[in-house]
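Troubleshooting: if your tokenizer reports a length mismatch, compare your output against this known-good record of 608 residues.
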Amino acid sequence: MHIGLRSRNRTFLAAAALALVLLGLALSFLTWQNLERQRQTIEEYLFLSSHVILRGIESGMSREMRGHMGGFPGMRGMHGARPELEPQPQPIMPRLKEMLTELIETSDVQFVSFYAQDGTAIFSARAGDGPEIPPLPVAGWRALSAQGEWAALYQGPDGADFFVSGIRTKPGLARLCAEDKELNCTPGGVGVPYLTVGLNPAKHLDAFRKFRRTALLQTGYVLIVAVFLWALGAAYVRRRDQGRALHRLETFHSRLLDTMPDGLLTVGGDGVIRAANPAAASLLLGAGEDLVGRRYHELPLEAGENLGDAEGGFCVPGTGWEQFTSGGRSLEVLSMPIPVEASAEGETGELLVLLRDRTVLKALENDLAEARQQAAIGRLAAGLAHEIRNPLSALRGFAQYFKKKLQGQQPEEQYAATMVSEADRLDKVITDLMFLSRPRAPEKADIDTAALAADLRGLLEFDMQHQSAEFAVAINAPVVHADPDMIKQALLNLMLNSLAAVGANPQGEPRRIELLAFTADGRACLAVRDNGPGMTDEEKAHALEPFFTSKKEGTGLGLAIVHRIMRNHGGRVAIEAQRQGPGRGTEVRLCFPPVGSATYEFEMENNE
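Known-good structure output:
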């Protein structure tokens, strides 16, 4: 038996998995945002630092250039001064390099480059052991030309990280080339020069990488913890569902064993009953008794007729179902050895014993055997009836002849009349026997119950008047689907039985016969009811059997014929009788199956 997870548990696990996925996406998004914000903060800091440095270098270069151009104030260009006394201009390049070298050594500056407007490097300074100055990318030159400033964090050709920032300087710095011929200036002019500086972002990037590593580790840790908690929750739900499924399975097995109609025993290797369900105790001892602890071979089982290989009145394991009787019940017992690996105690010689009550089935088998016997007798009776009818007709003819011949002579005439009436009665018995042995298939049609009641009233009017009986009709089902001739014959037999019954009522007591047509449980029913003396329980139990009668002159075939007619129609006969009280009398119901029902077709097949 399969017992799976409940749908709500699967929904819970799916919701938890979806929540875990959303948590992972949210954490990843937040971590990425934090990292991106941290990186932007570092770049903004480097950008501001580089711009401050660039403006400082620009101011320092302007100051150096002005000091270089001023020389000795009051002397340059004085009239009458001797040329050899004028101060000679010193190169500006050494002073710039000294200033820039000091800046590089005391800060994070890696290099400083001064470019002409066409991109030609006028001069540059870098740390002695630092990396090579990387060339500016094309995008940097375009940004400097268009916007006058540019900054970017990128790697140089040797893989070193740089934060390079550049600005368009003041046009006056272009005069540096005129002040110092050692500068690498183009003959056509410098134009508006550009100043770039490269900062070492290592410590900032290291801090960023540490932050990124920490953030990723924290995110991964949270995700791992979430996955672990989800797996733990899933395992708990699965374990809980398995526990519930096991409990449900145990409950189901317990209820199955407690409510199953067949008995079940477990017998140990020592012959002691270890377990038994209530049905086994009820079949063997009686309701409320306990079989556990008793010895199996001491149970009240008596061997049946087909015991086979049973030993000591008990079933031998592995020999199949055996027949036993216990307390008036007919039982079938099957004993099977339990393998050692399947044994709860791990011992050998354990048995599993099944007990099945087949009392009803045995009764049905007896009824079937009796029916077959009666069928054989019926076939024999049919043959005898056919052989008896021809000489009986001749005997009746001679009896009528002698009755007419001996008319007026007593007691000879009376003897002849008795012979004729007895021959007629014997002929009726033979006719009923032939009907029981060879019933014809019904030819069904819709019967108007009101017209049927009127026909029966006309047929039995003289008999009703003779018995001083009242005939009443109650029609609530206007149509019955059946064979008209057969149903009329069945109702005539019932009404003749009712006439005989009400005839036994004391003089002066009202005599009443009713014909009813109604529906019950979706079936059309006809019923004949009288207020006669009723029937005993024994008469009611055997009323439908052939040749059973309580009347002195009855043949016992009337109700048997009615029963056969209803069986041919796939219907049933129900008898209700009461001998005492104001409601005494007998009611015989004929209920027909619904038109086209499966029950009707099945029963017709069996009857055919």
